[in-house]
Amino acid sequence: MAHPHMALEARLDFVFEGKQCIGVWMDWTFDSMFSVAIIGEYDTNRDGRFDARENSRVFQGAFSNLKNYGYFIYIRKGDIRSNPKGVEQFQALQRQGRLAYRFFVPLSSLDLGTDFSLSVFDSTFYCAVQYAEGGIRCIDKAGNVLPPAPEGPSTQRAVNKKYPIYYNPRGAANDFRVYQKWEKGLETAYPEEITIRWE
């Protein structure tokens, strides 16, 4: 059973160059309890924003460890799942007393073509994830919102029962594997996926 201790609301902007998705901007807004803890520890001058030094400290102390968990991001092309190897342009923000992270996930090296899926999901169930209403967009490199299909890409958000995520509830603290198939002792989860297609 899930027993999350924190929650985030995700907004995603998929960035296209032509018909190829070259990356996705993640914008996560956290629950008030986690926000108070991080803002209280890292906004040392209490000015309601994170300056460059404070931003670096948030990255090192509260974000960089997510690399061990694939940044909670699962990318699926066909029946193969992967996690991003890194992220770029991390920025910690404060919005009306809430903590937010904004960062870019480069995807161009993955050769995803014009049909792939992505989910934001914490397989440890420590963090509950939900998508913001209307918070999934496709944009060009200049930030312009692309028209929906058939002129532009289509987006669909749904639970995909065909391609579950497997996780080890009894795994060691340093077990960060992405399981591609079920093994004895693994549990199964069906997170919501965002599927992007451009015909």
Write the layout of secondary structure elements.
Elements: E1 6-17, E2 20-30, H1 32-42, H2 52-63, E3 73-77, E4 80-82, E5 88-95, E6 98-106, E7 115-120, E8 127-140, E9 154-159, E10 165-167, E11 187-189, E12 192-197
Parallel strand pairs: 1-8
Antiparallel strand pairs: 1-2, 2-6, 3-4, 3-7, 5-6, 7-12, 9-12, 10-11
Could you describe the 3D structure shown?
With 199 residues, the protein is mainly beta. Helix content is 12%, strand content 43%. The chain has helices at residues 32-42, 52-63, and strands spanning 6-17, 20-30, 73-77, 80-82, 88-95, 98-106, 115-120, 127-140, 154-159, 165-167, 187-189, 192-197. It has a 5-stranded mixed sheet with strand order 5-6-2-1-8. The chain has a 5-stranded antiparallel sheet with strand order 4-3-7-12-9, with no helix packed on it. A two-stranded antiparallel ribbon has the order 10-11. The relative contact order is 0.22. The mean pLDDT is 91.
Q: Care to count the β-strands?
A: 12
Structure annotation, total helices:
2
Category by helix and strand content: mainly beta
Mean pLDDT over the full residue set: 91
Cα-atom radius of gyration: 17 Å
Head-to-tail CA distance between termini: 39 Å
Which percent bin holds the helix content?
10-25%
Strand order of the largest sheet: 5-6-2-1-8
The helix/strand series, from N terminus to C terminus, equals EEHHEEEEEEEEEE
Q: pLDDT under 50 segments (min length 5)?
A: none
- The fraction of residues assigned to DSSP E strands is 35-45%
Biggest pleated-sheet summary? 5 strands, mixed
Based on Cα principal axes, name the global outline.
globular
